[in-house]
Amino acid sequence: MKNNIIIFTTCLIAFLLFVLPILMIIPIKMVPSGDQPGYGDMGRVSVYGLREFKQIFVSTDKNLVAIGTTIKNPNLKNKKNILFNLYDEKGSLIRTTILNGFNIGDGDFVKIIFEPIIDSKDKKYYFTLSSPTAGEEEIIELFLIKPTNEVLEYTYDEETKFGGIPMVTYHKSGSIIEKIKRVYFNLILKL
Amino acid sequence: MNMRKLLLLAIILRLFVSGLLFHPDIKTIAFQTSFLRSGVTDIYTFLLESKASLPLKEEFVYFPLTYFTIGGYQALIAPILGNNFNNWLIDAGANSVVNNPHVIKYLLFLKMPLLFMDILIAFLLLNYFKKREDGEKAFTLWLFNPFTIILIYAFSNIDIYAVLLTVIAFLYIKREKLLTASVFLGLAIAFKLYPLLFVPFLFLKAKDIKEKVLSVVIPISIFLFTIIPFWSKSFVDSALLSGLSTRIFTPNFTIGSGESIIIPMFAITILFFSTWLDGKEIKLFNCFIVLLLIMFSFSHYHISWLLWISPFLTILIVKRPKLMWLVAIWALLAVLIPLFYSDRSMTISLFRIYSTWYDLLPTPFVVTQKFYDPLGVQSLIHSVLAGLSVVIGYKILKNEE
Questions:
Q1: Of B92, B125, B156, which one is at a domain's C-terminal end?
Q2: pLDDT, tens digit (0-9, with 9 covering 90-100), for A74-99
Q3: N or C: where does chain B have the smaller number of CB atoms within 10 Å of the terminal CB?
């Protein structure tokens, strides 16, 4: 009995530490470029009606597939469509996504997902966020931060300033082997 | 495999789990206890008064002895770990904490006392039995069951201080040294409140009035001695009457006009008085284990609490091998329930040292939600656990070997 318990436990712990992390990587279809920057120190802007928000950013990796940021929906009043339009540096509309305020809680981290852009590495893009049918009582709010290596400048209410929203880009993850390599490389760096 | 090799393998397994799995509590506790190095003795008032300026706002929910023990140990290791360790402690960033290049080293150092206590328990169990063979079985079972390894090292379970002292107390009870046992029980209570529930049974076991009085007075006095200097509203709110301490009194059924019967108290009372009136020799082992089975059956417990019962279950399996599978199923269900809590740090977040990518994965709670009510699943498993506890309790009390 003793030997069986030793073998069972050793195998189970080895599975937990070395196999389970690999299995957990498999369902991850997209990975963030980094951590979401801290927010709250540069105020907020409201998006509704004609008040649109424009953000210029750099995609630091290939296969850009989503943008994540924190959106406030005060008192969950916005139940209208929220339009996301993504443009390349030349101003051509390349992706469009429609969200609905009904699905956005107050302060939710929202991922806006679109078809992957394969050659997105180190390219500049901009997007607009608007909720054209929302009235003054149905605003959504975006936090503002200082510029980072990804977040360059924003335009709101016809004013352009450095910085923007605390956003993080997501990229379609590579093959399973590539993902495993990245996770374990990250772990080895901490040893 | 000889004992030395066995111990070495056990330690290696523990070091791997210590370094690679991360529960945020260890960081919070390490931050809070770091103030002992700056001369703070009343951590409860200090945290309350300095809340606005501190990067981590949580209250210290443990008793003063825990603060001094962990803080004292940290004072010893902090110079070895250097200034970066202090920066890591005050870092409130959820990602930067786990992405720190020294995080594995910090976790290994911070969890080292747990390893020491854990191995000590293994040796106490080795010497618990008259037959060497039984002792070795208990030693192996303690060191090589996945439950205790995960409970202690993945969840950075500082309840192990109270568990070790309770085991020592229990060894003295076995040797009929009740007063020495009550000293250790008092020290255990000074770390965690749960051994206080054992005191009434110690009272029953005592032979004469003097021993009965002392077996109650000693543990309570030790406990009071360690908490009274720190008595304040912040201490009472954050540690003494914290949600975790009082959770055992929550499950109840109403009997009208706002009154209710507290189920665990009701069951413990039955155990106490039936033991008293039984007329046979009082077997405290049986009482302790049944008492803990009652607690886990009828309360929404924290996963780390399961460590309280682990040494007793180990002894039970060695004493009554027929109950092994029943106990194994019980342990499996007991660990499974908290994994369904809506708390990322119970499951996915434990792996954040590997990568913060796992933050993208849903918890078992969220996955279950897609098919069925996860609270319903929890309730279902907990009901089975309660039923199993009754069976194990019955088997233990029926056959009082």
A1: B156
A2: 998 999 999 999 999 999 999 999 99
A3: C
* B243 — pLDDT class (breaks 50, 70, 90): low
What pLDDT is recorded for position B253? 86
For residue A93, what is the enclosing H or E element? strand A93-100
C-alpha distance from residue A122 to each of A45, A115, A161, A170, B364 (Å)? 27, 18, 21, 13, 37
Q: Please tell me whether residues B25 and B103 are part of one structural domain.
A: yes
Domain containing residue B224: 159-241
Asked whether residue B250 is assigned to any structural domain, the reply reads no
Which of B141, B348, B351 is opposite residue A5, by nearest beta carbon? B141
| Dist. CA A104–CA A74, nearest whole Å | 10
What pLDDT is attached to residue B31? Answer: 96
Domain boundary among B102, B124, B156: B156
Helical ranges in chain A per DSSP H: 2-14, 20-25, 176-188
Fold of A30-172: Jelly Rolls (2.60.120)
Report ipTM for this prediction: 0.91
Q: Note the pLDDT of residue A174.
A: 82
| Cβ contact A24–B351 (<8 Å) | yes
Contact B140 A10 (CB under 8 A): no
A 13-42 residues with CB < 8 A to B = 13, 16-17, 20-21, 24-25, 27-28, 30-32, 35, 38
Specify whether B36 is located in the same domain as B138.
yes
CB contact under 8 A, B144 and A32: no
Mutation for A interface: B148, B151, B354, B370, most A CBs within 10 A: B354
Confidence of residue B360 (pLDDT cuts 50, 70, 90): confident
